[in-house]
Amino acid sequence: MNKIISYIGFAIKAKKIIIGQSHLKRTDKKLYLILVCSSASENLINLAKNLATRNECDFIITKPKLEELTNIQDVKIIGITDDNLSKAIINNKEKINIG
What we know:
It contains five helices and four strands, in the order αβαβαβαβα. With 99 residues, the protein is α+β, with helices and mostly antiparallel strands. The chain has a single domain (2-96), classed as CATH 3.30.1330.30. The mean pLDDT is 91.
């Protein structure tokens, strides 16, 4: 899980992350990965699936809370806008116990 935390930290520092559903809905940036917390509401999970379909990107439900992975309070959904970072997270997804 430490690798995932590092990759998400790199995305945050490089400003290659979009946090929150309203920002994800409005973004014009290319999304490569959407992460949603398993504790999110059914509506938010459905929204994440729809956004992933619309943006033709991968979608992952994380078992640990996104708050733990991002160190940002009350976050339930994020989007990664960097192709390499998203591939690194996807390649290590078994470490975040995908649902």
